Amino acid sequence: MNPPLTGTVALVAGATRGAGRQIAVQLGAAGATVYATGRTTRDRRSEMGRPETIEETAELVTAAGGTGIAVAVDHLDPEQVRALVERIDAEQGRLDVLVNDIWGADPLITWEKPVWEQPLDAGFRTLRLAVDTHIITSHFALPLLIRRPGGLVVEIGDGTKAYNDATYRLSVFYDLAKVSVNRLGFTQAHELAPHGGTAVALTPGWLRSEAMLEHFGVTEANWRDGARTDPHFVMSETPAFVGRAVVALAADPDRHRWNGQSLDSGGLAQEYGFTDLDGTRPHWARYHDEVVAPGKPADDSGYR
Prior knowledge:
Layout: E1 9-13, H1 18-29, E2 33-38, H2 54-64, E3 67-72, H3 78-92, E4 97-100, H4 120-145, E5 152-156, H5 161-166, H6 172-192, E6 198-203, H7 210-215, H8 239-251, E7 262-264, H9 265-272, H10 284-292
Parallel strand pairs: 1-2, 1-4, 2-3, 4-5, 5-6, 6-7
């Protein structure tokens, strides 16, 4: 049998590392052709200063069974994004899935300081990286995506709408960035609906990205040792989990029922039955509400 996304063309904008990389890889594992974009290549690094590259991501996509194509793009530059979409059109003649995962603002965030103590230049740069990039990418990519009915847009953020609406995200700029991503999923859903398209906002749970593993001083092989620093780390998930959530949405012929909604990887795993790499289904959102928020001791029993 052919993989479920054979013939599908996807653009994962912001696929250098973390969630974006594994979304691209999991789409590849499902048979898709994936354009993986970002600013860090083997020749130069972005302001993130990290070693992961888009070429590595594309190679991982191909090794997983898909076709990975790395394209260096600064998604704040409209002309670079225009050229990217023109290339996809010329090479594939279609675009079926757009994943807006562009971020790259971690070094810019000042945590737990009020707005009057926030550095404005870094704050506004954060918003540009988190919001402007997504809008610019959709502006150029959606005319190609709506050429065929059934297109899917996934806005990747941090926190569901319900969570972000009720929670102070420790920085006015980070807060605005993540609320905006939820809203972009909602607004694009309305704009795509007349063309047979679907848009959602999607958040992972506590993501074991490359940077997060380094922060906790662990590797994927011994990640549970991170619970010595924060016991709730026992509920973290690999980036592949949210990647499989995107695959499940893209492969679902009835995905339009989610149009405009704010979704999470754990909730979709309960719906579609996919698992994380270890065979479990971590449900961070439910765990947070039932264990973290009430101040209970960390215990992932019944939440995987």
